[in-house]
Hints:
Layout: E1 11-16, H1 22-34, E2 38-43, H2 47-50, H3 53-60, H4 78-84, E3 88-94, H5 96-103, H6 110-116, E4 122-126, H7 130-134, H8 136-147, E5 151-152, E6 156-159, E7 165-169, H9 173-184, E8 193-198, E9 202-204, E10 210-212, H10 218-229, E11 233-238, E12 250-253, H11 257-267, E13 273-276, E14 283-285, E15 304-306, H12 310-315, E16 322-329, H13 333-343, E17 348-353, H14 354-357, E18 362-369, E19 372-380, H15 381-400
Cytidine-5'-monophosphate (C5P) is lined by residues 257, 276, 278, 280, 282, 307, 309-311, 325-327, 340.
Amino acid sequence: MANTPSPTTRRLLLGLTGGVAAYKATELARLLMQDGIEVQAVMTESACRFVGPATLQALTGKPVFTDLWDARVANNMAHIDLTRNADAILVAPASADFIAKLANGLADDLLSTLCLARDCPLLVAPAMNRQMWEHPATQRNLATLRRDGVTILNPGSGAQACGEIGMGRMLEARELTEAVHTVFQPRLLQGKRVLVTAGPTYEAIDAVRGITNSSSGKMGYAVARAALQAGADVTLISGPVCLQAPAAARLINVVSARDMLAAVKNEVSRTDIFVSVAAVADYRAATASKQKIKKTGGGLTLELTPNPDILEYVATLPKPPFCVGFAAETENLEKNAAIKRRKKKLPLLAANLAQDAIGSDESALTLFDDEGKYSLAKAPKVEQAQRLIQHIAALYEKQKS
Length: 401
Ligand code: C5P
């Protein structure tokens, strides 16, 4: 039995059309449900040839609709009832044929009728053979849909089921999940340019050794994602991490603190909001050896020199962007965070306990601003980042008015 949705539960109508990529839609349904989104699947007749409605029914906890004339719908108007209950429609996979139908406003089956009889956003994830994708007719139809305000989640390039290699491969379930979250977020930072630093920096001691901080980059990447979902243009400057950056962010990879500072200097004049999540190494070796330092059996003394403070540099510019700092503390969280906020002249600082946050998928945050402190109870970093972005957007607007 599916749980009764809360009034804030987002409802997605997931449409499947005929294509091998329909198997990815089953994983997509699972991920969306995991994220608390209610999914109602609707399949075309050809989609049912690739995956069984029973699979989607089991994953979503709801009967799947396939037929315009479904007698289960009391008023026999499945096409009206189903869209009335949806906050968005995502068609994944969307075949070339289905895209052509949408572009021309045809409504000869349940899914195409639902797409026509809607007033919620429509997202389309094309999946087809390279030649079908490149055909001028398909490109013309896609251009029409874009003009009609439909979001096209452009396919990627790669090996295809037909043996060809090229464009037309549907995005992965994880990427589609992100697109759905984006539609469901309020566009609080629409058109704002957000610069985020994330991950650790790595300071070479010699050719193979270095100094770094334990930072997974998860919080910084979550902040970049949440800013994208809020409608911002995001540039993500990242130290070495093992994470996949959100596809819509402009990613700049760096290694050392000085690389990170140089990248920030390049970007900062085009930035409205700077969120410095990176765990920048405070020191680097005074001289890094090009060759591997040989082990002698005795001790080794390293001379360290301080790294530039990137956030302090940005916050003290004559016309700084709105600056947000992060502080990972192991003790006296509040006292240390307040001192850091004053020292770096920040309108907002987010603090957490290093031992709880580092590497974890969850964190508890305390936000400090001119008006006081706000505790954000432990939650997945993705959610925490969304709350932080809401706070940033409110302060940013207040500062401007
Ligand atoms: O390391 P610390 O606790 O001072 O970090 C506080 C904030 O300053 C963080 O937002 C961090 O990204 C930033 N920082 C920086 N450059 C440094 C050290 C810290 O930008 N060298």
